[in-house]
Amino acid sequence: MAKQYNIRWTDNDTKQLSKAVRNYNAKVKRLEAKIGDTPGVVVPEKVTMKEMRNLIGTRRDLQRELKSLQSFTQRGSEELVRADTEDNIFLTKWQKQDLLKREKVINKARAERRELLESQELIHKGEGLGYTKGAVGMGKTDALMLRPTNAFTPKMRKYEINEKMKHYRNESQSTYWNKRDKIMIDNYIKALKDNFNYRDVKDVIDKINSMPIESAVEIIRSDPQEFNTAYPPDDEEYELYLKHLKEMWGLAYQERKERRKRTNSGKKKSSKKKSKKRK
Question: Is residue 271 included in any domain, yes or no?
Answer without folding.
Answer: no
